[in-house]
Amino acid sequence: MARQKLLEVKNLKQYFQVGRGKVVKAVDGITFDIYKGETFGLVGESGCGKSTTGRTIIRLYEATEGEVLFNGVNVHGKKSKKELKELNRKMQMIFQDPYASLNPRMTVADIIAEGIDIHGLAKTKEERMQRVYELLETVGLNREHANRYPHEFSGGQRQRIGIARALAVEPEFIIA
């Protein structure tokens, strides 16, 4: 049985303007494939473009050049709002700095359930909360944590909240 490509990154470039006429080539022509069920590691020294590559793959940055194909569809091609929403559900990112990526004004339950709400993945409030409790347990936290705020947790616990948030929408692909 042939392996099925989930993600194809072809000659991806991500450049940033920094001042007059200066350009930082954060990612300069990277190419790789990731297959369904595969774990792929992108390694390199600090500042070499690993996080920028991840952010460009999931469209937090618009690629300067190159292609990103997810299930054969160009991620950076023109998309309707519906297509973008579905793409955002299928591709999730767990950010390096969990504190910066968690809304301090939201409870952990609301942070985790935000994607569930956006994508209509729970029919009732009870189903929504049950899913939140399951996700908390999956990442080693308990249901009592649901009504607390991000600042009340350690760095490791906040990282687990970020993982639960990413898993909540049942993505096909996760960047961590």
UniProtKB/TrEMBL annotation:
Chain segments annotated as transmembrane: none
Listed InterPro entries = ABC_transp_ATP-bind, ABC_transporter-like_ATP-bd, ABC_transporter-like_CS, P-loop_NTPase
Q: In what residue span(s) does the ABC transporter domain sit?
A: 7-176
Keyword ATP-binding present in the record's keywords: the answer is: yes
Question: Which SUPFAM superfamilies does UniProt cross-reference here?
Answer: P-loop containing nucleoside triphosphate hydrolases (SSF52540)
Nucleotide-binding as a keyword of this entry, yes or no, is: yes
Which keywords does the record carry? ATP-binding, Nucleotide-binding, Transport
Q: Name one Pfam family in it.
A: ABC_tran
Q: Report the GO molecular function annotations.
A: ATP binding; ATP hydrolysis activity
Q: Which PANTHER family match?
A: D,D-DIPEPTIDE TRANSPORT ATP-BINDING PROTEIN DDPF-RELATED, TRANSPORT ATP-BINDING PROTEIN
Protein family membership: Belongs to the ABC transporter superfamily.
- Which protein is depicted? Peptide ABC transporter ATP-binding protein
